[in-house]
Amino acid sequence: MSSWPHRLAVVVPTPAHSTIAGPLTYGSEFALPPGTLVRVPLGQRDVLGIVWGEADGDALPAGVEKKIAGTLEGLPPLGEGWRRLVGFAAAYYQRSVGEVALAAVPPQLRELSPEQWERRQRRKTATGEGAPADDPPPLTDEQAGALSQIRTEPGPFLLFGATGSGKTEVYLRAVADVLAADAAAQALVMVPEINLTPQLQARFVERFGEGAVVALHSGMTNPQRLKAWLAAHTGAARIVLGTRMAVFASIPKLALIVVDEEHDPSYKQQEGARYSARDLALYRGKLEGAKVVLGSATPSLESWQASEKGRYRRLAMPSRVGQGRLPEVRLVDMNHQPRGTVVSPPLLLAIQERIARGEQALLFLNRRGYAPVLACTACDWKSECPNCSAFRVFHKIDRTLRCHHCGFTERVPRACPTCGNLDIAPVGRGTEQLEEHLATLFAGTLRPDGQPARVARMDADTTRAKGSLEAQLGEVHSGAVDVLVGTQMVTKGHDFRRITLVAALNAESALFSSDFRAPERLFALLMQAGGRAGRDASRAGHSQMWVQTWHPDHPLFAALRKHDYPAFARQQLAEREAAAMPPFSFQALVRADARTQEVAQAFLRAASEAAQELPEADQVTVFPPVPMAVQRVANVERAQMVVESVSRPALQRFLAGWGPVLQGQRVKGLIRWAVDVDPLAI
Ligand code: ADP
Ligand code: ZN
Ligand code: ZN
Fold first, then answer.
1. Closest Cα partner for 641 from 671, 600, 670?
2. In 3-state terms, what secondary structure has residue 427?
3. Residue 321 and residue 140: Cα distance in Å, rounded?
4. H-run or E-run covering 102
5. What's the CA-to-centroid distance between 431 and ligand 2, angstroms?
6. Phi and psi of 562, rounded to 5°?
7. Which is nearest to 25 in space by CA: 38, 16, 141, 15?
8. Interatomic CA distance for residues 25 and 554, integer angstroms
9. Does residue 127 have a pLDDT over 50?
10. Nearest listed ligand to the Cα of residue 380
């Protein structure tokens, strides 16, 4: 029996902690270059795999060694840059290459049979480029200054531009530059949230034409995703817009990467390979010689620190376009308001003024649903979730109690399940109730056109149906809505022209969380929210940002009042340095899920003890295991343990050595464990 003429190392979708974490060897009659997509037998079925290189080691006889089942005819191999990015991400985030690689290709490519693929290939039509339509506006001096540096310097750049300073125009021009310089060049532009993609896509299509632009995000159907992915992979699309997943798109002639709102935590993937798309964008830029522009009005402290040290070139655009002014910040001391106040009287008055002038107000509350808890007035029954250490949220619209952690949903009981009392009442407030409350309050308030004021709500519940987000944004932009209520979803990125008042109702609960990043998050959230007010210069003179707070003396508000991000960053970085916290140290989390909290913690404790044997042990601090903030979800107990080092390479070596040790721990009742490198939520 002879062996196959070619032996290839192929990565297949293997889970991170399985025994087959590396590439598998397959025989082939033909030489196939690395990056070729192939179908290979794995267990009882054929799966999609990617050729990673030549296999080494001794050949097995044909019949013993498995053979590649087929290739995707006509599909160019994935490039070296892409493969190196995937390899790096897998190693850095402690996952298998196969898992990361196969998660990064469109689901439909994994599922199509060879026959389906062939049929698709025959149907395929070429995408042409549209002729650019709109005339770009003349740049402001600040925009021109930023662009000339992007043109002439290598970067990476931190575009520190106030809300409304025209960062998008800088991205458009920077993209136009690289596309003009090279007829094949491509650009990647990322935004943190799906709901920001329609607006961005519209701007890019206007400028570059329909055929030049594709979007990639998880809200697309599988056929849409495959089509967009192929357009990027074959070079037909010059511009790829997307959410974090787009950082793994195959873009063979990548010349520029933009990461808009780079501070946004949504860039961090929270399951599987827990990668940071922003950090990978920087790595990918270096790898592929693409320029990288990170943009934000409130950069992450990591990026700000890097720009302080000169590792990133900081480009400042402090002014709003066209004499626009940043909103005046007003704090309402809730200690001096009547008990039970939802919207304080002075804030109500200010909103009424807006309605009467034909302007809009935006109120945000970080809690969807009608009320976070439903409680019996006679006994101590509360709407606890039976599966989680959390309350189920009361949604009045369909009279349900829904758990926002595990999804468990039930009709609201007619009477208290414990004592039979008929009087069960909502406790606290969510956006649904706020909408109802405001609609009652403003029922008699008229707009300049004599129509009654309209209150609308935008949150994950109202935007679930396809197209509903676009429709709702359209109503805000057209002026049909006077008061918009929402979760933090409405505070990010949107270019609302008529909003002159923004109010945060309960934002500060974040300040008392145990997470050391809570102040950074809150400051960014409030600055971003304020950024939605007064974007149109003709209405900006009286724009305001209101914050209802129980702690008006918190230093964070002093910086917020002056829109002084650098002062805030200085103060925070001093604290972080004194406590040796990131960005002055590097962290990873090990998380364990088990049937009981004891088992989860026992696994972590054993891992911690075993870690003392590793060569880097003296450079790494392993903290004791603790239960997670929401300790039980869907009847699974969760615990975590922080690992920290002042040296990133030492931490990386430590984690690499620790992986097999963790894998070797056999603990009864353990469900799963995972490592989160550079975690954002502790
Ligand atoms: P940012 O992302 O910095 O918050 P945007 O990019 O949304 O700001 O720009 C704010 C507004 O200013 C948008 O309506 C945009 O069309 C407009 N704009 C940007 N640059 C210019 C310019 N050079 N001239 C006129 N208007 C501009
Ligand atoms: Zn009761
Ligand atoms: Zn639950």
1. 600
2. strand
3. 7
4. helix 97-103
5. 26
6. -95, 5
7. 38
8. 60
9. no
10. 2
CA dist 560 and 526 (Å) reads 8
Edge-first strand listing for the sheet containing 254-260: 213-216, 239-242, 186-190, 254-260, 291-296, 157-161, 313-317
Mean pLDDT of 476-497: 89
The one-letter amino acid code at 447 reads R
Measure the CA–CA gap between 189 and 399, rounded to whole angstroms. 41
From CA 104, how far away is CA 40, in angstroms rounded?
18
| Residue-range domains of the chain with CATH | 6-123 (3.40.1440.60), 141-317 (3.40.50.300), 328-368+430-577 (3.40.50.300), 371-428 (no CATH), 586-677 (3.30.70.1710)
Look at 63-72, 93-102, 295-304, 671-680 and tell me which has the smallest mean pLDDT. 63-72
CA-wise closest residue to 312 among 302, 322, 321: 302
132 pLDDT exceeds 70? Answer: no
d(CA 226, CA 217): 11
Give me ligand 3 centre to Cα 589, in Å: 24
Pocket test for ligand 1, best of 158, 169, 264 (most atoms within 8 A of CB): 169
pLDDT at 2: 56
Convert the pLDDT of each residue in 401-441 to its tens digit: 999 999 999 999 999 999 999 999 999 999 999 999 999 99
Q: Taking the chain, what is the end-to-end CA distance rounded to the nearest angstrom?
A: 57
Question: How many angstroms separate the CA atoms of 506 and 15, rounded?
Answer: 41
Q: From the CB of 167, is ligand 1 less than 6 Å away?
A: yes
Where b means 16+ CB within 10 Å and e means fewer, 557-586 reads bebbeebebeebbebbbeebeeeebbbebb
Which band of pLDDT confidence, cut at 50, 70 and 90, is reported for residue 670? very high
How far apart are the CA of 280 and the centre of ligand 3, in A? 33
Element (H, E) at 671: strand 670-677
Which residue from 582, 588, 110, 620 is spatially nearest to 303, judged by alpha carbons? 582
Whole-number Å distance, alpha carbon 79 to ligand 1 midpoint, is 36
Q: Which structure tokens are listed for 177?
A: 């530059």
Closest residue by Cα to atom 19, ligand 1, is: 166
Ligand 1 proximity of 168 Cβ (cutoff 6 Å): yes
**Position 19: which residue type?**
T
The pLDDT score that the predictor gives to residue 126 is: 43
Instruction: Spell out the residues 6+ positions from residue 597 whose beta carbon is closer than 8 angstroms to its own.
Output: 627, 631, 637, 639
Mean pLDDT of the chain: 91
- Could you tell me the distance, in angstroms and rounded to a whole number, from the CA of residue 139 to the centre of ligand 1? 10
Per DSSP, helices labelled H in 374-445 are 431-441
- What digits encode the pLDDT tens for the residues 542-559? 899 999 999 999 889 999
Which listed ligand is nearest to 633 at the C-alpha? Answer: 3
pLDDT of residue 125: 46
Confidence of residue 497 (pLDDT cuts 50, 70, 90): confident
Q: pLDDT tens digits, residue range 558-616?
A: 999 999 999 999 999 999 999 999 999 999 999 999 999 999 999 999 999 999 999 99
Using alpha carbons, select from 212, 246, 244, 243 the residue that is nearest to residue 229: 246
- Write the residue with the smallest CA distance to atom 17 of ligand 1: 166
Q: Examine the pLDDT at 64 and tell me if it is beyond 70.
A: no
pTM of the model: 0.93
Whose alpha carbon is nearest atom 24 of ligand 1?
137
Q: How far apart are CA 473 and CA 533, in angstroms?
A: 16
Ligand 1 centre distance from Cα of residue 536 (Å):
10
The pLDDT of residue 326 is above 50: yes
Closest ligand 1 atom, residue 260 Cα:
2
CA distance 260 to 172: 12
Where is pLDDT greater, at 464 or 291?
291
